Amino acid sequence: MSGFTRDTKHYGDRLVYEALESKWGRYHATHCGCDRDWVTVHAEPAGFTVVRERPGFVALVGPGLTEGVDEERLTANALWEAVTGKPGTQDWYEPVRVTCRCDHCEAKERAHWDALRAERKARAEDAKTSPLTDKQFAYLEKLADQLGRARVDRAFADAIKGTAIHPRRPREHTRTMLRRLTRASARKMIGTLRDDATRARFGLPLEP
């Protein structure tokens, strides 16, 4: 989420404001609507400087936001006015997130992310062999009814590619075929059929 932060690894001793793109892009679209990039068109001309940028957020410094301000009374009103063209009305104060970079904290952070990655990997491996869920099965049935056998067979063949799941057997009913999917292959098939259903709903040609 957006907020004020101090992080010696990325910003030295500077106070910065990390602005979440989805949040500030939405503010800009709602209150300005110029359909241009809010950072380059509004924030930078107003005196704000980008000190770090990654997909999904941008870190800014500037007057009224992180410079010449009382850190006990921080608001994003200055950036709001620059981006939307309207005076900010934020009447609450935001805290500063401080990221500790000592060896102990860094080791703890690495261990946290290593554990998360291990958990995700274990779930992904389990999904390759565990049967699809009842919820997945019901959704696939619904999509199959909408799109017909030809599209279902194509999506099924794509979903089982590289797995031990056999293609549709002669005279095999669609429900029986779907029950042979794993959670992982069902997830892949749902993605394909959902895209097909969306294109069909808007009258767009389906991909071959």
Would you tell me the overall average pLDDT? 93
Secondary-structure class: alpha+beta
In N-to-C order, the SSE pattern is EHEHHEEHEHHHHH
The major pleated sheet works out as: 5 strands, mixed
- Calculate the terminal CA-CA distance, rounded to whole Å: 40 Å
- According to DSSP, the number of beta strands is 5
- Globally, the shape reads elongated
The gist of it:
With 208 residues, this protein is an alpha+beta fold. The chain folds into two domains: 3-99, no CATH class; 134-201.
Characterise this structure.
By secondary structure, this protein is of the alpha+beta class. The chain folds into 2 domains: 3-99, no CATH class; 134-201. It contains 9 helices and 5 strands, in the order βαβααββαβααααα. The chain has helices at residues 8-11, 21-31, 38-43, 77-84, 103-127, 134-147, 149-159, 174-179, 183-201, and strands at residues 3-7, 16-20, 49-54, 57-61, 96-99. The chain has a 5-stranded mixed sheet. A hairpin with a 2-residue loop joins strand 3 (49-54) and strand 4 (57-61). The protein is elongated, with a radius of gyration of 25 Å.
